[in-house]
From TrEMBL:
Keywords: NADP, Oxidoreductase. It holds the Pfam family adh_short. It comes from Roridomyces roridus. Belongs to the short-chain dehydrogenases/reductases (SDR) family. GO terms for molecular function: oxidoreductase activity. This is NAD-P-binding protein.
Length: 303
């Protein structure tokens, strides 16, 4: 919560000419700031978000501030058909992908909120949506690894320290609506989704590391964004003094996605600011990871 001064900065990012990046949640907050820095380093950047007007505005602002224009892709992670459409749109324009930032997500929405497909909104958006997007873009990621001089492509998965504090577990009966799910409440459901992000990231590293995919999960820090829009005024007042600016919030995922030394961090968990940390030990249980992966594969196999 109170990290030491950063030793790594965005100024250390090498020139990214020829690299292609895709950022979920790329039209605001940490995602938009990530896009800004990648564009300034000459990467080709796709920013994905739910709202077309917000996306168009983000494209305009980023083009003005960097001199390079990102490409907007409409993406609703809470609707698997929309995820598929977004992936197909990307595939129609690109044959490779070098960096996938699984950055978008929701935190503490009302418990009665579900995704279009009937999943808990937090687990469905934060885990299922990102799993399906990554699955669909794997051919492009593998092509990115093959074409890269360093032989790698990267998947950067945004989690949270909430995966340790709120609910360090996976209760499969709560992934869809159930009495057990409602008993957990919004905070534990959020923690579970962030736990799932780390489990997925680690399993992706195990399954595809030998094919050049570097998968890293991270806690970006307590950052001033609109992610906490569902929190109560009292909660925001209580935690507001602990929040850091978005310019710091981007450091850890930019390090994971661009730093040459991060190629050695496959399957690792990072903490602010661009440091290797320790996730909850349960996230690295291969049996849990296999069970989650198989469940996710089953849920997305016939779409």
């Amino acid at each position: 919560m109170f990290p030491p001064k950063a030793k790594w900065s965005a100024n250390q990012i090498p020139d990214l000419t020829g690299k292609v990046a895709f950022i979920t949640g790329g039209t605001g907050g940490i995602g938009k700031e990530t896009a800004k820095i990648l564009l300034s380093k000459n990467a080709k950047v796709y920013i994905a978000g739910r709202g077309v007007s917000g996306g168009e505005q983000a494209v305009k602002e980023l083009a003005q501030s960097t001199g390079n224009t990102p490409i907007f892709v409409k993406l609703d992670l809470a609707d698997l058909k929309a995820v598929k459409a977004a992936a197909e749109e990307y595939k129609s324009k690109e044959s490779k992908l070098d960096i996938l930032f699984n950055n978008g997500g929701v935190m503490f929405p009302p418990v009665d909120k579900l995704t279009v497909d009937g999943y808990d909104l937090q687990f469905g958006t934060n885990v299922v949506g990102h799993f399906y997007l990554t699955k669909l873009l794997l051919p492009e990621l593998l092509a990115g690894a093959q074409s890269s001089p360093d032989g790698h492509a990267r998947v950067v998965n945004t989690s949270s320290m909430g995966h340790q504090l709120l609910y360090p577990n996976l209760s499969f009966e709560t992934f869809k609506d159930s009495p057990e799910r409602r008993k957990l409440g919004d905070k534990k459901l959020y923690g579970q989704s962030k736990f799932g992000n780390v489990v997925f990231s680690n399993e992706l590293a195990r399954r595809y590391g030998d094919q050049g995919i570097i998968s890293i999960s991270l806690h970006p820090g307590n950052i001033k964004t609109d992610l906490a829009r569902h929190s109560s005024p009292a909660e925001r007042a209580l935690t507001g003094w602990m929040l850091y600016p978005v310019q710091l919030g981007v450091l850890t995922q930019l390090y994971a996605g661009t730093a040459p030394e991060a190629l050695k961090l496959n399957g690792k968990y990072l903490i602010p600011w661009a440091r290797v940390g320790k996730a909850h030990k349960g996230t690295d249980d291969p049996a849990v990871a296999t069970k989650l992966w198989q469940w996710l594969e089953t849920e997305t196999s016939n779409l």
